[in-house]
Amino acid sequence: MQRALLPIDVCERIIDSCNSCPQFFYPQHLADLRACALTCQDWVPRSRLNLYSSVRLRNVRQLDAFLNTIAAHPFLADFVQELVVGRSTMTPDNPSERYLPFAHAALVSALRGVRRLHLCHYLWQAHHPRYIQLAARYPIVELSLLGGTYQTLADVFRVVWAFEHLQVLRLSIAELSKDSSSLPLVEFIKRRKARICCHLETVMILGPALLGTKTFPPIGCFGNSLTYLGLFWTPELRYVPSEALLLYLSTPSTLQHVAWRADCGAIWKLGDVHNCKLYVRNSLQVIPADGPLRWVTLDFRAPTTTGNMSRTLFLEYTIGSDLFGIKLHRTIWRLEHFKSLTLLVPESDQARYGAA
């Protein structure tokens, strides 16, 4: 960029800003980055770096095209840091349309710098069971399983455990075709070797499907290094967490931060707020008071509003005295146990649209 009229750092920040889009599904930024590349020859390298930093593969045709591209220009493979595989929505039931062998031997060996893998509605059943071992050759530290159908929870953990260097995990499973009984799952979890999930510190549950099962999360499924656990609440979960979740939270662990993301639909109603608060309270009260937990986050900012309730009333109803004043092993949880309590509250209809 020696001939650029603007400073180099300004040009690079302009190009980089076109890549700061919502995670996973971002078709618009590609057109913006292409436009940057066509602005002038000096903008091509930075635009290309951003274009190839995240690669999205939706079908076999795109996979073949990408393989041909890096075969012709091997240096482009070094730019790839993130791999997004699959479609943002469920595709037709025809397995041939969902077949996408992203763990291609040539691709695995070429993408040495990829660190984030997001699998969207991926059809593992289309592959041999050992295909997971080939996929695990990617040096992944951040994994997202978004949507998709698995037969049992054991099948979910077979995928998760394959990535031994995993640090961040996001789970949003659409459906379990067979909710296995607790005994076989417990026996399966016991097979986890010490090296598996030994680096896993952050787990986020992005949907209610797993939290609605009777056996999730089983103790030991995420290893012994977890410090952040993100949970999800919707009205169908009501106010009573599953026994498995309560047992998981009550077990002494390294957990330091628990966050709930709540979504009730279009408008928050008092009944929904009450149930969500009870769900959180019932979850908190089983956590050992002398444990390392210090941060709690309650996020109510899903695409909803507080309706006619003011944000002040919403907050008062949410964090009433009964949220933290709960007896636990003959002791009282007090707010000072936490270094930080974060509440993220949506706007009311009046605040969002203005007074009529």
CATH first level of the largest domain? Alpha Beta
Given helix and strand content, the structural type is alpha/beta
Q: In the CATH scheme, what's the topology name of the largest domain?
A: Leucine-rich repeat, LRR (right-handed beta-alpha superhelix)
Q: Label the CATH architecture of the largest domain.
A: Alpha-Beta Horseshoe
**Residue share in helix:** 25-40%
Low-confidence stretches: 325-336, 352-356
Summarize the structure.
The protein has helices at about 10-15, 30-40, 45-50, 60-70, 95-100, 105-110, 130-135, 155-160, 180-190, 210, 245-250, 270-285, 310-320, 320-325, 350-355; strands at about 55, 80-85, 115-120, 140-145, 150, 170, 175, 200-205, 230-235, 255-260, 295-300, 325-330, 330, 340-345. The chain is of the alpha/beta class and about 350 residues long.
Explain this structure to me?
By secondary structure, this protein is α/β, with parallel strands linked by helices. It has two domains: 1-11 and 26-51, no CATH class; 56-353, Leucine-rich repeat, LRR (right-handed beta-alpha superhelix). It has helices at residues 8-17, 28-39, 44-51, 60-72, 95-98, 105-110, 131-135, 153-162, 182-189, 208-211, 243-250, 270-284, 311-318, 321-324, 349-353; strands at residues 54-57, 82-86, 116-120, 142-146, 149-150, 168-172, 175-176, 202-205, 228-233, 257-262, 295-299, 327-328, 331-332, 340-344. The strands form three sheets. A ten-stranded parallel sheet has the order 1-2-3-4-6-8-9-10-11-14. A two-stranded parallel ribbon has the order 5-7. It has a two-stranded antiparallel sheet with strand order 12-13. β10, α12 and β11 form a beta-alpha-beta unit.
